[in-house]
Amino acid sequence: MKRELLALVLALLLGLTGCASGGSAAVLCTSEALPAGQAIAAAGEDLSCAAAESDEAALQQLAGGQCEFALVTSAGAEDWREAGGAVSPRAALMAFAVLSRAGDYGAWDRSTRVVIVGAQGGYGDRIAQQVLTCALYGSVRYDTADAALEALRRGTADAVLGLFPPQDAGVTEALTRVRDCALLSLPESLIALRLPDPAMEEGPVAFGEQTAQSCALYGALCTGSTATPEQEEAVYRAAEQAGILSVASPGAILE
């Protein structure tokens, strides 16, 4: 009986410390990259994700050992690299997508219902507002990514604009299952896109089998001194599965 009780106590202690599952790891990231961090956590095991106010705040907590990894923009990654920290190859954090079941921009009219993903004034909204100056539309509202895609599927929205993690499963499903749903490139009549962050670049983005000319937010995955090689390998593998990184190993080199 004593031996069984001792075994139970040890099992509980291992579970509380995380050793029973090989050790959990936390990823901290800015609010703009939070969906990408959540995608990494969902693709891996024993991974959690939380938001920080800024790259600087995320890296301060990483340096203090409050988390094992930080997903930050290009500027934050360069700061961490200059401080001697380990940094992944460049990561695609978020890609701007325009999903339309109402045809190309020229086919939109005053009955076209638009949903913008995220908060008013956020990165996605600031790009979406520039896109909308090139199209005729009816109503505009703001919602979460899941709710916006669900509205597209149910036919209560005609177009969805916003930032999504690369290869987002919800976007891919909408493009596959929603009738006449297409991934649109940025309007040709948009002379100059004002990007809300220096880490954003214009270029091709892909979701599923569809590709469009749009823009994306770039950064990198920074590793703290408390992370074990096993945790780092697991996070890289999860980031590769989520489409955030193109490599699944910390030692891999991009061609």
Observed structural traits:
alpha/beta; elongated; 34% helix; 8 helices; eleven-stranded mixed β-sheet; 255 residues; single chain
Describe the structure.
- By secondary structure, the protein is α/β, with parallel strands linked by helices.
- The protein is 34% helix and 27% strand.
- It is built from eight helices and eleven strands.
- The chain has helices at 2-17, 34-43, 55-63, 74-82, 123-132, 145-154, 169-177, 229-241, and strands at residues 25-30, 47-52, 69-73, 86-87, 91-100, 114-117, 140-143, 159-164, 182-184, 200-207, 210-223.
- Strands 1, 2, 3, 4, 5, 6, 7, 8, 9, 10 and 11 form an eleven-stranded mixed sheet that branches.
- The protein is elongated, with a radius of gyration of 21 Å.
- It starts with a helix and ends in a 14-residue tail after the last helix.
Low-confidence segments: 1-22
Instruction: Give the distance, in angstroms, between the N- and C-terminal Cα atoms.
Output: 60 Å
Please indicate the percent range of residues in DSSP E strands (runs of 2 or more): 25-35%
Mean of pLDDT: 88
Secondary-structure-based class equals alpha/beta
Overall, the morphology is elongated
The number of helical elements comes to 8
H/E element order: HEHEHEHEEEHEHEHEEEH
Q: How is the biggest beta sheet arranged?
A: 11 strands, mixed
The portion of residues assigned to helices is 25-40%
Could you tell me the number of beta strands? 11
Give the C-alpha Rg: 21 Å
